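[Q] Does anyone have a clean structure-token version of this?
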Amino acid sequence: MSSGFSLAPDQRLPRSCRPGPIVATMLVLVQLGLFGAPAAACRYQPLTAVQQLERADQVFLGRAGPVEIGAQTATQGFDVLYAIKGELGRRFVRVYPWPSNTCASVYEPGQLAVVFVKDGLITVPSGSLPIEAQLAKLDVLLQGGHTGRRGKPVPVELEAFRMALTKALLTHLHGRPKVAVLFGRFAGQELTVGKTSLPFVERATGRNVVRITRALSVGPVRLVSGAYPLEGYVFDALLLQTGAEQFQLLGHWGREQSARVPPGRAVRAFESDP
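[A] Here you go.
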């Protein structure tokens, strides 16, 4: 097991120290303070994704567990879903001073994020933010900064697309009988979401087309992003492969905004080695 600051077994904080409603509220307030205006609180220079990766000792895609509060320290474990950089086990345990300093990142139990560890610390300046703040550069982060093709790329499986598009588009298709999906790799194949058929095509025009903007396969992680101009909607879905043609949806995020994707133009898909 990897950890930030390690504790001996007999020094582990007991489960009885888990935060109650008041402490949980404090955590949320601290998090809102950190993530609402981290620059003002920490006074740091934002780093690019590559800089964040280069400066960190360990980087991983993880899901936060519960926080255990002690007299002077807090402990939080993370399930390591995918190790991006450094030596990591399946579990990462973080121990930090409590109350934490203003630059420490705070995660609610169950929260998903790419976590950066430097000298045993997980901080906002290092890039450790909620995944919603990392979506724009998530493909770069997951690939460890190496976005070029190396060796034979592994394509995102059709079953992963099925799960991603079902979760992302179900409430935005409004029962339309047919909506094309612009992604040439699966041209000629078709999925069904609700009452809508989604045929994959190599070329398409107009706004009633789902345009895939990212299709990333790295290790067991799959990232599918796209835009549906007719609804002014863009989305991301993150999945974890659990078996042959079996996937677990880690999360999906949608934003209703103008999707600046040129009509009729296929968008490149990012792929990398497993």
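[Q] Thanks! Anything notable?
[A] The first helix runs from residue 21 to 36.
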